[in-house]
Amino acid sequence: MRQLLPDPREDLSDDDLLAAYAHGEGRLRVNFVSSADGAVTLEEKSAGLSGPADKRVFGLLRDLADVVLVAAGTVRGEGYGYPEFGPRRRERRRRLGLAELPTFAIVSRSLELDLSSSLFIDAPVRTVVLSTGGVEPGAELGSAADVLAVPDLAAGIGALRGRGLTRILCEGGPSLFAALVADGLVDELALTVSPLLAGPGPGRIVAGSPHPAAHLDLRHVLEEDGNLFLRYAVRG
Length: 236
Ligand SMILES: NC(=O)c1ccc[n+]([C@@H]2O[C@H](COP(=O)([O-])OP(=O)(O)OC[C@H]3O[C@@H](n4cnc5c(N)ncnc54)[C@H](OP(=O)(O)O)[C@@H]3O)[C@@H](O)[C@H]2O)c1
Prior knowledge:
With 236 residues, the protein is an alpha/beta fold. The protein folds into two domains: 1-38 and 46-62 and 171-236, Dihydrofolate Reductase, subunit A, CATH 3.40.430.10; 66-166, Dihydrofolate Reductase, subunit A, CATH 3.40.430. Helices cover 25% and strands 25% of the residues. It is built from seven helices and ten strands. β5 (128-131), α5 and β6 form a beta-alpha-beta unit. Bound molecules: NADP nicotinamide-adenine-dinucleotide phosphate (NAP). The site of NADP nicotinamide-adenine-dinucleotide phosphate has 30 residues, from β2, α3, β4 and α7.
C-alpha cells in the first residue's frame, strides 16, 4: 500500500495505516467499497468489489472503532456475524486505548433479524439493536441483545455515545448511509474505489430518499493494485 496524497509514501505498515485513519472520539465514520462505475455490489454482495488491500483497511478500521454500526439490510444481505479478533488485534486495540473487542450495533425498524447469527449467539460482546420502528422485540431477541427503542437515528447515535461508544464505524448499507447524511450525523467517509466496471444494475452507496448535497474535503489517497482508498471529511 502506498500513499499518493497528501505526501507520496511507499510501503505503508499497519501502524502507518492506523495513523492515517486515526479515529477521533465522538466521530462517526462510514466505510464503503464501490466499483469505478459506482456500483455498491457485484452479484448482490460487496465481496466481489473487495480484495486483499480493501480487506486490510476494512479490518484496521474496525480495530479503530468502539462500535460497528450496520443496517439490518446489510446484516441480512451479507450474513453478518461477530468476526474473529485474534490476540494481535486485541493487543492493538488495547494499545490504542480501546476495549479489546468492538460492540456491534444494528439499526432496524422491523426487528426481523437472524437470531442464529454469531452476533446473537455466543457474541463475545453483547450486540446492541437500535430499534426505530416502535416494534416490540420478541423475548428471544430481548435476551440475545440490548434492544434500545429510539425515536430516530440521532437518538440512536446519542445512545451509543452515552454508553461510551464514541468512535463509531458505520459499514452501511446504502439506505442507512443516506439517512445518516440527511440527518447531518456523518463526519467522514472512507471509500475504496475498486478497479472494476460492474455494469448497469447495482445500486450506489446511497439509497432511499434524496437529501441535500453534502460537500467533502479529501484527506488522503492511498493506492494498492489499482484500488484507491479515499478518506473524506464531511464539510461543516
Ligand atoms: N459495497 C459496500 O461497501 C457495501 C456496504 C454495505 C452494504 N452493501 C450492500 O448493500 C446491500 C444492502 O442494502 P439495503 O438497501 O438493504 O440497505 P441497508 O441500509 O443495508 O439496509 C436497509 C435496512 O436497514 C434498516 N435501516 C436502514 N436505515 C434505517 C433507518 N434510518 N432507520 C431504521 N432502520 C434502518 C432497515 O431494516 P429493517 O428492514 O429490519 O427495518 C432497512 O430495511 C447489500 O446487498 C450489501 O451487500 C455494500
